[in-house]
């Protein structure tokens, strides 16, 4: 039963519309992440609610990373089924999100 469920899930994920939708959603989420970047910058880290700002930014970053990873996985499944090129933009967005997470967790933004 678990194998059938996995095949059904892979069938949904490998559809071109799903991968494209996830890629667009991750791009819009990254745009929103860039808009709220000042929350964890020098101005946002010196306020009384700096911890809340950091948690909000971390939440949006997690959603962006999840969407980008889902888009990458879906595009790779589609590539496996149909052929085609690597999803460079989705992979790049995943890398940028991981780098941003690393910088955020090592206090690189609040210098």
Structure, explained:
By secondary structure, this protein is mainly α. 75% of the residues lie in helices and 0% in strands. The chain has helices spanning 2-13, 16-35, 50-82, 88-105. Helix 2 (16-35) packs antiparallel against helix 3 (50-82). It starts with a helix and ends in a 6-residue tail after the last helix.
- Shape verdict: elongated
Overall pLDDT metric:
87
Number of strands: 0
Helix content: over 70%
In short:
Helix content is 75%, strand content 0%. It is built from 4 helices and no strands. The chain has helices spanning 2-13, 16-35, 50-82, 88-105.
Write the layout of secondary structure elements.
Layout: H1 2-13, H2 16-35, H3 50-82, H4 88-105
Annotation keywords:
mainly alpha; elongated; 111 residues
């Amino acid at each position: 039963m678990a194998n059938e469920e996995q095949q059904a899930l892979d069938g949904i994920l490998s559809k071109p519309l799903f991968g494209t939708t996830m890629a667009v959603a991750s791009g819009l989420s990254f745009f929103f992440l860039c808009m709220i970047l000042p929350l964890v910058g020098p101005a946002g880290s010196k306020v009384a609610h700096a911890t809340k700002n950091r948690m909000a930014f971390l939440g949006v970053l997690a959603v962006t990373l999840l969407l980008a990873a889902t888009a990458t996985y879906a595009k790779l499944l589609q590539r496996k089924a149909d052929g085609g090129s690597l999803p460079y933009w989705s992979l790049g967005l995943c890398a940028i999100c991981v780098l941003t997470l690393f910088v955020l967790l090592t206090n690189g933004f609040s210098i």
